[in-house]
Design goal:
The complex is a heterodimer of chains A (428) and B (270). With 428 residues, chain A is of the alpha/beta class. Chain A contains 17 helices and 10 strands. In chain A, the strands form 2 sheets. A 6-stranded parallel sheet of chain A has the order 7-6-5-8-9-10. In chain A, helix 8 links the parallel strand 5 and strand 6. Chain A is elongated. The N terminus and C terminus of chain A are likely disordered. Chain B is 76% helix and 0% strand. The chains are: A alpha/beta (428), B mainly alpha (270).
Chain lengths: 428, 270
Amino acid sequence: MMSQKKSRRELVLVGLSHRTAPIELREQVAFDRARTEQLSRGLLANQIVAEIVVLSTCNRSELYAVQSEACPSDTSALESNFAAIHRITPDSLNGHLYRHRNGEVARHLYRVVASLDSQFLGEAEIQGQVRDAYLRALSLGMTGPVLNRLFQAALEVGKRVRAETGISTRPVSVAFAGVKLGERIFGDLKGHCALVVGAGAVAEQVVQHLRERGVSRLLVSSRTREHAEKLSQRFGGEIVPWELLSSLLAAPDVIVCSAASSERVVSRAMLEQAMKSRGNRPVFLIDLAIPRNIEPSASELYNVYLYNTDDLNGIVEENRRARAMEVPAVEGIIAQHIGKFEAWQAAAELAATWAGLSQEEKVKLIEARAEQIHPVSLEHRRRWIHQTSALLEAERDVDRSDASGRPGRMRSSMRALRILFGYGEERS
Amino acid sequence: MNTPIGFGTAALYALSLVFYVAYLYANKPRIGRIATACLAGGILLNFFNMVERARLVQSVPYQDLYGSMSLFAWLLGLTYLGLEVFHRQRSVGPFVLPFILVLFLVAEMGPSMPSSPPPARGSLFALHVTLNILAYSAFAISFVLSVIFLIQNHVLRERRPGATFWRYPSLETLERMSRSSVLVGIIALGIGIIFGFVWVHRIRGQIWEADAKEIASLAIWAIYCSYWWLSQTTAWRGARASYLSVLNFLVVIFSYTIVNVYLSNYHRYF
């Protein structure tokens, strides 16, 4: 006997991000694998939520949940568990948490996955992080129809946004811009040789990118041997003695300079000689050092492409502006998907309402509706009653797990609802 | 636009151009596919257009300058499509399509009147003409690729990349594509010239007539061979070779227009 007729299961979001919380707090509430699982299991076991996904990155800790029917409609239970798992008082979250419901949750997640909420517009990592968070929850059986729908749609949004807008096409970090420029010259960097002179954070990032792109040979040279050894160990490169640098300039196609040196490390004459021995095959030089390691006039040499820190910063700045101009297009895609999600949610709620009715109530409803229908023909009316009773038959053995787990069932009951109430006809 | 087919061809080429340009700026794969589909449709209609023209003039479709331009547009489209499929690169399309469109439009504007049939018959002759125009198409594409190379090279050296900079192929790819299409051109032109000599020997009994077009064609063949060779040497590799490719194509245009119309005795239209 179903006592609760109205079974509204709200989709809620509780969380904080770099926009609302300082790094100290974000560190405290970061979820590792164990905590994610512990919290999720606890919430499900205590019937606070019916579905849950925990999204935790260095910028955010968020709980996406469908509240269970038994639970009060505010998010206080969720919040106190959120605080408890990290062993902090709920008060310390005050003013840092944001809470969203239903369509707003969808908007938030779509914006997150589209990188509009990230520190860098258009960054690609968040797509993978959302996917991993979702897949983990899915494999643990912690999601249901609502969160499955929400996250699959979100991943679709992320994919579309990156494919259809220019939000992530142009590089916005100095290191990545450097590597991308190299690709504009050589195409695929596989099979090319690179040389790193000196060490530095940005230079290391460049080397990392180069390695990821399959640079076949990496030469490392530094005045201090330990630096060179550290770099070569980390990225698997060959150490070139500092004194032999000039004789080895002909080999690499990409040269990254970041040595702390008051005098020039690579002179124009050295490069001229190197170009001769490499048959004028193009060479791409990135000079990240200040003062500069490479004689600036070397850029006049034929087939020599020389970029310094300012050049790269200028490009990055320009690309950031270009990405910002793509935001309206991204918002457009998001708006489309929010509309879709809300329509789906409304329909799902209707289906849930139907499922919550008792058999007699359903029969009564159908009969009342049948009265209202103008009997076009006897045949028409018979067909209609046949269809709705088929629905009732189907409904009888749809238990909750079935309804949540099998989209086919869900669809058939949705179809029957459409017949009954005329719902969704304008939309489909 | 004399016929519905002609109109349809021009419309498809124009649409294709619009979509290629849109693709360059919007970078949506779907737009790129539409551009390619329009081009393929245009090429198909262009073919039927040539068949119709041939039926109308009761001769080969390249009987006059306009017919030969239609064939040029068709082969250019075909060569480019091959290149696009082979290298999976759509970003060159916005530069090739204007050539195709202009060639086709000029061909369509001209009269297609039946002319007195010269001894321009036979499969040997057809191969001679088709192969030579195929070579011109390949050279035109190499020209376009070289122009893009020079623009990209300039941007890279000035260190001020703009919006479309990131969408073009790399310098090395452009160079490779240009060289491969020149190779196609050299082979096609070489065989085409040999067929020409064989054909002229067959009807006149001698091979060398010192016709201006013969000299120009051999010169074009020689300068493209030198490009092919120089573009791999220390001194020429890169921008210099691309300048050479651009210059070479100016000679092709000279041969196709001035030499055809004013200087040659019997090569009037191709």
